[in-house]
Structure formats: structure tokens, C-alpha cells
């Protein structure tokens, strides 16, 4: 993990913790949304951050790989924006209900097995991508 976070093209050190500042900024925005009727009182209370902490980074070993590299996990539970993220997932969940969206690996396998094709004429390819999310250029 030390090697991962020491890559300054992906991560950069900061001098102070912005958690409380960002928590206060979100509280002001939530108040505006509630006053304008965009969110209800219960949604406001659900999203209201209190005692927020920075996200925690840890690594889970990829035991199936040579050298057992770590898969970085950024845990956002307890962060200032965790509640509003959960609310957005609930409000936008209808977007994931589509015939082209597959819920999990088991449903994916069921879909594959139900195809009426000659498997000798087709190949399934899976690419092993390293650091996908940290290597996507933001611009």
C-alpha cells in the first residue's frame, strides 16, 4: 500500500484534512435543497453528515495472482458524503433496471448459458486491467 500511495501521479499529499470544511459545505447545500423542496425532511435527516471521517484506504490480497498484489479498496462509510451517495443510489435505482444491465456474475452466467449459439464459433475474452480507475485520464 505504501508503494501505491507514494505514486504522486495518482495521489497527492495534502497539508490539512478538509473533512470538516466539506461537511459544513454539504450541510449548507442540503439546507438549500430542503428549503426549495427538492428533498424532504426525512431525506435531509438521512443525508445530514455528523462526525465525518476521511475515507480509509486498505488493500485486499489477490491470492490468485503471482506475488499476491493488493487490490486497493477505498472505504467511504463514515465520510461526509456517504449519506447523500446512498440517497442518490436509492433515487436513481430505476436506471439500473434495464435489459442490458446484468446484476451479478450468476445472472451473467445464466445469460451466457441461455444463448442459442455454437460456442465453437465464439470466444469470451476477459482483460486483466491494472489500476483501471486511477489510470483513467480525467480530462
TrEMBL record:
Checking PANTHER family in the record gives: REVERSE TRANSCRIPTASE, REVERSE TRANSCRIPTASE DOMAIN-CONTAINING PROTEIN
Q: Which domain of life does the UniProt lineage start with?
A: Eukaryota
Q: What is this protein called?
A: Reverse transcriptase domain-containing protein
State the species of origin: Adineta ricciae
Amino acid at each position: 500500500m505504501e508503494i501505491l500511495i507514494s505514486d504522486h501521479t495518482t495521489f497527492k499529499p495534502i497539508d490539512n484534512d478538509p473533512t470538516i470544511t466539506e461537511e459544513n459545505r454539504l450541510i449548507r447545500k442540503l439546507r438549500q435543497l430542503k428549503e426549495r423542496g427538492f428533498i424532504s425532511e426525512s431525506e435531509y435527516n438521512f443525508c445530514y453528515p455528523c462526525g465525518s471521517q476521511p475515507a480509509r484506504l486498505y488493500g485486499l490480497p489477490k491470492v490468485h495472482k503471482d506475488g499476491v498484489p493488493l487490490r486497493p479498496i477505498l472505504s467511504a462509510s463514515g465520510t461526509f458524503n456517504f449519506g447523500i451517495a446512498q440517497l442518490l443510489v436509492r433515487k436513481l435505482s430505476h436506471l439500473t433496471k434495464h435489459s442490458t444491465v446484468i446484476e451479478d456474475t450468476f445472472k451473467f452466467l445464466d445469460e451466457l448459458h441461455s444463448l442459442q449459439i455454437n460456442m465453437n464459433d465464439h470466444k469470451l475474452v476477459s482483460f486483466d486491467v491494472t489500476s483501471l480507475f486511477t489510470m483513467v485520464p480525467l480530462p
